[in-house]
Amino acid sequence: xxxxxxxxxxxxYIENELSLSKRKEFETYLEENPDARGLVESIRxxxxxxKTIPKVIVSPDFNDRLxxxxxxxxxxxxxxxxxxxxxxxxxxxxxxxxxxxxxxFVFVSMQLVSPADGGTPSxxxxxxxxxxxxxxxxxxxxxxNRTPDLADADADSSxxxxxxxxxxxxxxxxxxxxx
Amino acid sequence: xxxQNSFNLSEMSLDKQKAPFVYTxxxxxxxxxxxxxxxxxxxxxxxxxRLINFVFQFLGDREQSEDVVQDTMLKLYMKKxxxxxxxxxxxxxxxxxxxxxxxxxxxxxxxxxxxxxQMTRDERxxxxxxxxxxxxxxxxxxxxxxxxxxxxxALPEHFKTVIILRDIQELSYDDISSIVNxxxxxVKSRINRARLQLQVDLKDLR
Lengths: 179, 206
Hints:
The complex is a heterodimer. By secondary structure, chain A is an all-alpha fold.
């Protein structure tokens, strides 16, 4: 055990928290180093003296003063704030903001909701009533219907060329390894 | 809202007919949270002296320490629902007191800085009156106490808190770890270092 290890273990030794083997090692070090023994004793004395420091106690009127403070705090919280006028509990600024927001909300809602008496539909409604193109696969009927259209488009030379390219005979270019 | 005269602080015990400490701290705070203000009084009575001793070691001024303990108790009253039974009540209340004491120390440091900056050079150069040990057991013991307290005050903040909680308040390592919010190993190490530091500072006392 070196000096650093010894110093690290002083508190644990004094408070009996060392394992048996460590304790033996520690005590061997103490026997070999009288100054270390003095250090441990000195710390032990300090700890004992700290426990004898006279205790401070609160003054006899501690609880009365505490009660008075609690009550004054409650009274303070109970007093309504009359210095500032409020509208439904909101300050004028917040009340104005809230009113503006409510009006804006109502206006937007009116724009979105369709009129029940058959008036001119709004632009949004116009689009909403349109059939929305589906992003999913089209129904089979539609595919059948559309096939002739695609056949009509065969006249497109680029498509024709592509077909020819895809059917190109590569047999002449193929060579067997044994050839 | 608190009812007027709903509890009488001069009546100290929660239930004087029964044993004074029949409830644990955690049971008392639970009762207080449920609206039983007598439980609050019992908690105040249990912790006021422990807390003033704790805070006094930081501030070194009895009146200020009492004010801090009052603030702590007031906070307990106002913020009772903030306590959750995941930690011991003592840990919680010590943490509040410690934070308030630290705030007071910071205020004091600011005041001191201001006062010093306002002083003239002659006013700043002063010597603290030396405390001379006189003959007599009582005087010697008082002198030793003052020296120990001064040595504790002189410790760095993180050493001071743990040494006060361990060697004066006699709290467990686990509780100290929760109060100062550092791992157990760090607490043990800090306490050991603080004891070594105190031993150096108080070497000439013996």
